[in-house]
Amino acid sequence: MAGPELGVDEKMPILRRSRLSTGIPDLDLILEGGYQNPGNVVMVGPSSMEKSAFAYHFAGCAADNENSYIVCGNSSPADIIAKAANVGIDLKKENIFFIDCYSTTLGSQEPIGEPDPTVKIVPGPSALNDLSLALNDAVKASAGKRMRIVFDTLSTFVLYNPKDSIRKFLSVIEGRLRSAQATTLFLVDEGVHDKQLLSILEQGMDAIFTIMDTGGKISLKVPDVDIPLPIRVAPTGLTII
């Protein structure tokens, strides 16, 4: 029988309190409220708008008592905001922040105007110590709030750093962010990493989601659900079809 230990929401008994909304209502119902909170979630799939849309939905639906942080590995904050807007998701909000590990790879440029308070610059995806410090600052700034964190994409950091460095980095931040009541969504590019490295990336995760492209038909493999869910990106966002 459902009880307090399950964290069941009194208004919607089907949803659990130990979940954080994905930003996609149909997926929230399937997952009994969303991604595990706190928790680490990996989403593996081809480089596509579908995979990015999951990240944008998750970051974009942060409530007033939550902060979202997008760790940029292969796109600038401006590009991510623009791509999200193309599918109807607004990422220009006071509680959505960016840890930009990408822009410095384009070469040094003098900043124009006042610095953006929602963007923290990290000197490239190989600067794992700086990234770890930036995440520490995010945890401190979010005291008393739940955190949504997106790595877009983790694959970029894996390509820029030795395997042992990535293993140590993940072992530290996964526990630290979980302790801070964060749900972290790690995007991983399919076909980029060998099986051994992929197993390292998946080792500390609480849930693994897989996006599959079978002849142009895109579907999502969800933990504990036998049948893949057909998905589609439209101008109003990603939907389960």
What's the helix and strand layout?
Blueprint: E1 19-20, H1 25-30, E2 35-36, E3 39-45, H2 49-60, E4 66-72, H3 77-86, E5 96-100, E6 119-121, H4 128-141, E7 146-152, H5 154-160, H6 163-179, E8 182-189, H7 195-203, E9 207-214, E10 217-221, E11 229-234, E12 237-240
Parallel strand pairs: 3-8, 3-9, 4-5, 4-7, 5-6, 7-8
Antiparallel strand pairs: 1-2, 9-10, 10-11, 11-12
Q: What structural category characterises the helix and strand content?
A: alpha/beta
For the record, the CATH class is: Alpha Beta
Write the CATH homologous superfamily: P-loop containing nucleotide triphosphate hydrolases
Reading the helices and strands in chain order gives EHEEHEHEEHEHHEHEEEE
Any idea of the CATH topology? Rossmann fold
Number of discrete domains = 1
- Report strand order across the widest sheet: 6-5-4-7-8-3-9-10-11-12
The rounded distance between the terminal residues' Cα atoms is 32 Å
Helix content: 25-40%
Radius of gyration: 17 Å
What gross morphology would you assign? globular
Give the biggest beta sheet.
10 strands, mixed
Report on this model:
A ten-stranded mixed sheet has the order 6-5-4-7-8-3-9-10-11-12, sandwiched between helices. The chain has seven helices and twelve strands. With 241 residues, it is an alpha/beta fold. Helix content is 31%, strand content 27%. Helix 4 packs parallel to helix 6.
